[in-house]
Amino acid sequence: MRVYLDNCCFNRPFDDQSLLIIQLETEAKLNIQEKIKSGDISLGRSYILDFENTANPFLERRIEIQRWKVLADSFVNETEEILSEMDKLTSIGLRPIDALHIACAISLKCEFL
User: Fold this and answer.
1) Is the pTM for the entire model greater than 0.85?
2) Contact 43, 36 (CB under 8 A)
3) To the nearest whole percent, how much of the chain has pLDDT over 90?
């Protein structure tokens, strides 16, 4: 199984953990992270994740997120198919950046959990 984690997922452990929902999302992300490290699941990555990460104002977070690139078993750059899928997803109400992440995950044949 291959999963795709967007920038929000990668940043969740750095967020304020005072809310229960943030704590639960962090625990879920850390569990997935361990499964990636152990090889139980694989990680897909995209150009848009790298683009967003370069804009992260927190150097420590940016470096940590970049380290995950070597653990990804697949990577996708922008294609016409991805942009077309993004257009379909935005036409049903998704924000463009979210639609782009989903289009990349589809292109990488990731599982949707």
Assistant:
1) yes
2) yes
3) 97
